[in-house]
Design goal:
This protein has 455 residues and is an alpha+beta fold. Among the domains are: 2-139 and 360-375 and 422-436, no CATH class; 157-233. Helix content is 62%, strand content 13%. It contains 10 helices and 5 strands. Strands 1-2-3-4-5 form a 5-stranded antiparallel beta sheet, with no helix packed on it. A hairpin with a 5-residue loop joins strand 2 and strand 3.
Length: 455
């Protein structure tokens, strides 16, 4: 039996690696095509580009691993069935459950490290990728000077050069953009540009400065220089790496999200306590309503009562009515804050359970893939990819739909994230039961030719 276990594990390992690399390549290529616009015209060093691409491989691995398990299972059991190895094992008294157990073990060996990866490596790489993407987005285009083209990326000046010789540009023309008071133009035979942290140091040689007042062209000044320097502000011309303590839900570990949830629950409890105190002060002898709608109905009912008492004591009734209006506004605002906190709690709950439900899909995919591979009787990679695409698409439709419903507070976060595993897991158990008892899920009709009797 140990030999059988090693054999089945071996048949899963290589297809898993093969499928993992293929799926990572496909997802990475798709990401690269969408992200290439962020690099164009930025003048980024190659190490920054490679770092950004590397940081985004974390979420790709998290998505690719379960798919690779499904592909490997389909290929392994498809080949077992195609080569009649399943039939031979069953005839030797080995049950399908025993054959399936090494595959489940393999899926667990993938799922458990993936859970750790999702809680430790993935949040930090997601955070660093987002921060680097923000810095790249904020960076202005680098000073890419081409002869014969105006450079208009700088805030105060635009310039054009005729050519370049060595480190110096030839025949440099610089024009000031601020023309409210004076119009400035600078011409130099040679010039060099040195990028600083937040500026460009322009050094000009053998040139002239021409200044003329916009409102009075008779006031003209001409300055001749051998060497002249200009510091041009250029914020974010150089890539500046920033650090921040703020993180989104996908950039947090379990402990971070637990702290966030605890903080929101603490705020919710404080608001509920404030609502109770305000209600007891305004309605001392009335039970506290269970919902905001009941509370608002009670307030409106009390307002109508106060309106009827206007005749007996107008001043008191007006004051009391205004107090009730203010109370209703405060309570409505408080309940809106509570609803916002609940949505945040649910969003973090979704992300917490996703860190475990997505790796657990590896086990679910084995329950689905093993009997499906036997039914297809094909161990080719193409067949496995085709069937995997259908089940993975169905799984992620459930996952995305559940996440959307959880964000709108229609479903609890745990239910939303585990629903795909429960649904497909149930399908997998039924398919496994059918395979264990050597039944087929889909019966195809058979047609027999018969002889027509002549009467």
């Amino acid at each position: 039996m140990k030999l059988l276990t090693r054999y089945i594990l071996k048949e899963h390992f290589l297809p898993f690696l093969y499928a993992l690399l293929i799926v990572i390549f496909l997802l990475f290529t798709n990401f690269l095509l969408r992200a290439v616009d962020r690099f164009l015209g930025k003048g980024l060093p190659i190490d920054i580009i490679l770092e950004y691409l590397f940081l985004n491989t974390a979420w790709i691995i998290a998505l690719a691993a379960p798919v690779a398990v499904l592909v490997a299972t389909l290929m392994a059991f498809g080949r077992f069935s195609e080569d009649n190895e399943i039939t031979a094992l069953r005839s030797s008294g080995v049950s399908f459950t025993r054959i399936l157990w090494p595959a489940l073990t393999f899926s667990i060996l993938v799922a458990v490290p993936l859970m750790t990866f999702n809680n430790t490596v993935l949040p930090h790489m997601n955070h660093n990728a987002r921060m680097l993407a923000r810095d790249i987005y904020r960076k202005r285009p680098d000073l890419n000077v081409e002869a014969g083209y105006f450079i208009d990326d700088l805030p105060q000046y635009s310039f054009i050069v005729k050519g370049k010789r060595g480190d110096r540009y030839q025949d440099v023309h610089i024009y000031g953009k601020d023309r409210t008071v004076t119009q400035t133009s600078i011409r130099a035979k040679e010039g060099s540009f040195q990028p600083l942290d937040d500026a460009i140091m322009v050094t000009l040689y053998d040139g002239e400065i021409h200044e003329v007042e916009v409102n009075n062209y008779q006031n003209y000044r001409r300055i001749i220089f051998d060497r002249h320097r200009i510091t041009i502000p250029a914020e974010d011309l150089m890539l500046e790496r920033r650090e921040t303590g703020s993180r989104t839900d996908r950039e947090m570990t379990l402990n971070m999200m637990d702290e966030k949830i605890a903080g929101y629950r603490k705020r919710t409890a404080a608001i509920e306590e404030r609502i109770i105190k305000e209600f007891e002060f305004s309605f001392p002898d009335t039970p506290i309503p269970a919902t905001m709608e009941d509370l608002m109905t009670l307030v409106k009912k009390q307002q109508n009562i106060e309106k009827k008492e206007t005749v007996s004591d107008p001043n008191r009734s007006i004051s009391r009515s205004q107090d009730l209006i203010n109370l209703s506004l405060r309570v409505r605002t408080d309940y809106q804050m509570i609803a916002g906190y609940e949505r945040s709690i649910n969003r973090y709950t979704v992300e917490i359970h996703k860190k475990f439900s997505l790796p657990s899909a590896c086990i679910v995919f084995v329950l689905v893939g093993a009997p499906l591979g036997i039914m297809t009787r094909k161990g080719s990679f193409f067949t496995a990819i085709v069937f995997s695409f259908g089940f993975v698409l169905l799984y992620y439709l459930f996952l995305i739909g559940g996440e959307e419903m959880a964000d709108r507070n229609y479903l609890h976060g745990a239910v939303a994230m585990w629903m795909p595993n429960i649904v497909l897991g149930a399908v997998g158990l039924v398919m496994t039961y059918q395979a264990t008892h050597e039944r087929t899920m889909f019966q195809t009709p058979s047609f027999r030719k018969g002889k027509k009797k002549l009467s």
